[in-house]
Amino acid sequence: MELPAIKIPQIELPFDIPLLMHPPVDHFIIALPVIILLLEFINLFAKKRAIGAVSFFLLILTVVAAVAAYLTGSVDGKEAFPLLSEAAQTEVKEHKLFGTYLMLASAIVLVFKLLSAMISRGLMKALYLLVLILFVAGILKQGKEGGELVYKYGVNVEKVQELDSELFDVKEELEELQEENESAEAEEKEAPAATETKETPAEATPVTTTAPVEAVAESVKTEVKESAEAVAEKVEEAKVEVIPQEVEKPQIATH
């Protein structure tokens, strides 16, 4: 069951509330109502006005402590809120809302105490004790949830806040690296497609090796023919021209 939202008008104080004052104040707002409840139970049998007076004085201190707890909690909550996770922020909002109700309830308990003192009837005293018991139960519940905020979510714990901020930076860097990796993979997928489209025309016109082989054979034949002709010319030049000479016949002497 969610409590309806309630907003207390902000009052500007003439002084600044230091940080981390909420935990010590909480000790008073938790301890005082428990002591008052014990005194009231004792006074049911003792029926001493002195005990009633002490209980009334402690109730006034309880109201003051409840207001102090609300103010210090608001300051500490504002300081820690931006550094918390979504779940922790939700818990802080609920803790603040319930604390607001408890602060108002402390004043209601004080009113019932005054009524029980003025109206000396058993029904009024029983009603006052019932309101006081409910108030103490709410205070104990609020203290338990406040401890969970510290130990589970690390509210106002400096070391946890530093680790959370570092984790947040690491997550951002990881997301950037994932985006770069995805873009690189997309480019790699587009690159083979582009090369395939470029190679398609070359595949459409296959290259045959017949023409180059015939050209080489023809050039070899031409070179062989030219070299043969050159050798023949050299052989012709090297021939020695033989010129025939007339042979003189010997003269036979006749007598």
Structure overview:
The protein is mainly alpha-helical and 255 residues long. It has six helices and no strands. Helix 1 runs antiparallel to helix 2 and helix 2 packs antiparallel against helix 3 (86-118). The chain is rod-shaped, with a radius of gyration of 55 Å.
Entry summary:
With 255 residues, the protein is an all-alpha fold. The protein has helices at residues 22-46, 49-80, 86-118, 122-151, 158-204, 210-238.
Query: What percent of residues are in strands?
Result: under 5%
How many helix segments? 6
User: What is the residue-mean pLDDT, rounded to a whole number?
Assistant: 79
Number of DSSP strand runs = 0
Unreliable residue runs: 200-210, 240-250
Tell me roughly what share of residues is in helical segments: over 70%
Number of domains: 2
The termini sit apart by 180 Å
Main β-sheet: number of strands, strand sense, barrel status? none
- SSE series: HHHHHH
- Pairing-aware structural class of the strands and helices? mainly alpha
Gyration radius from CA atoms, angstroms? 55 Å
Shape: rod-shaped
